[in-house]
């Protein structure tokens, strides 16, 4: 076993494992260290994958309960929560093992342990058995990800007061679930437990759900979720929580201050964001600069202020998304190998995997207004899409924003069935600098949901035909 590498990657999530694999492909010797015991980081172990497994299963459960009868299917449906959780665990296990396989295939050494940079070019790894292994490398890539942002005064026990990690492994369906934060995690995991039978109340500090998403979409999203039975208390903050008779008494008050009230619940999910994680990494000892939010500061080539140390993924600036981490990993590995790695930050799609899904890419209307950009809008509702009708999923719409003068697509928001998959077409179009007319004049199969994207693109020039 060599103890000297071209690159040692610290963190085995989408940022870390993809960097290591790409380095291996490019012929560099690489090791990837992760403390978790199974590779894949937050994403594969306690993030994207387990949440999507439960979103899928709970959506099928809900569909069987509510939609099957409308389709002429009679079924008696019963929840087997342990089996649902076991399926989730199985998928996670298969995918994390898959990363180990990819390491072997690309000659990457995967090391289970906690890394601490002791000097430029040197890292000490505390292994699972407590022993240490000293490694040297020409370059380090920090890909240590992020952790749950704490709610002041509230201690997460992962049983009654849970973060996303606990909410992915509850052993029974809470009668009443209180979600703090109407962001991506709150609405995805709130949806899981709502579909499985919980009464879900969401307390959000700001005056809207999913801040940052196109306002029109955000309002439509809240309306649809309210129709599904979610209760929202916006512009509200949690100020305390008390454990009481097997339940919780949560004190809330208006965000701007005012009269307190108490919400009783069985489980409280804290989902108010995530923060960069670099604890114990030795960054202060080697002098790597962090910003005010604890994120590793890098230049456009992912270089920190210390030569030979790079950072990618959630631990640096930008959206905390697995595919953003992956793209940065590839670019960083290519730059280290002397190639021209690059990430186009104008075209990073983002998806909320609720039902319906919400997907966005590029600029939203508020951002274009603020920048003084003149734009045109094309919109198309799923109520007018034939395929959406056949699958009984007509809530939502596609909204495309294009430059008023050049017609170049500047952004898109989709709320509707399969919005995440539909968005790939728009992202690709934007990557190629397409105009809305390019999308509108591309032949789209009938009957598909993609036709809604085409009709919205036609709408930019005012010739939507199917409405
Ligand atoms: P991480 O995946 O966090 O990996 C970092 C790894 O480094 C961790 O395994 C950590 O244990 C390890 N580590 C830290 N310090 C050390 C050290 N000193 N030594 C060794 N190892 C160390 N994103 C999406 O794009 N789509 C989704 O659907 C999605 N769903 C999500 C659902 C949930 C519930 C959560 C919490 C997140 C979700 N995300 C999703 C976000 C996504 O998981 C992150 O953006 C992504 O994992 C970031 O990748 P990363 O490699 O930067 O960090
Ligand atoms: P988030 O940033 O999406 O949402 C947090 C919400 O909590 C915001 O609406 C915020 O205004 C609110 N908030 C903050 N402080 C509050 C307080 N004290 N009281 C009440 N509300 C408060 O963060 P979230 O949902 O925790 O997710 C973390 C990150 O994980 C996201 O940034 C996202 O990038 C990533 N993620 C991505 C997913 C996806 O791509 N589908 C799924 C899940 C997570």
Describe what you observe in this structure.
- By secondary structure, the protein is α/β, with parallel strands linked by helices.
- The chain has helices spanning 14-25, 41-46, 48-66, 81-105, 164-167, 184-195, 215-227, 283-286, 322-336, 365-371, 386-390, 419-431, 436-440, 450-460; strands at 4-10, 30-34, 108-119, 122-127, 132-142, 146-148, 161-162, 176-180, 199-203, 231-233, 236-244, 247-254, 261-265, 267-270, 274-276, 309-311, 350-352, 357-362, 375-381, 397-403, 409-416.
- Strand 17 (350-352) and strand 18 (357-362) form a beta hairpin.
- Helix 1 (14-25) packs parallel to helix 9 (322-336).
- The termini are far apart.
- 1,4-dihydronicotinamide adenine dinucleotide binds at residues 151, 180-186, 188, 203-206, 211, 237-238, 271-274, 319-321, 350-353.
| Tally of DSSP helical segments | 14
Q: Give the strand tally.
A: 21
What is the CATH homologous superfamily assignment of the largest domain?
Answer: FAD/NAD(P)-binding domain
State the low-pLDDT regions, or none. Answer: none
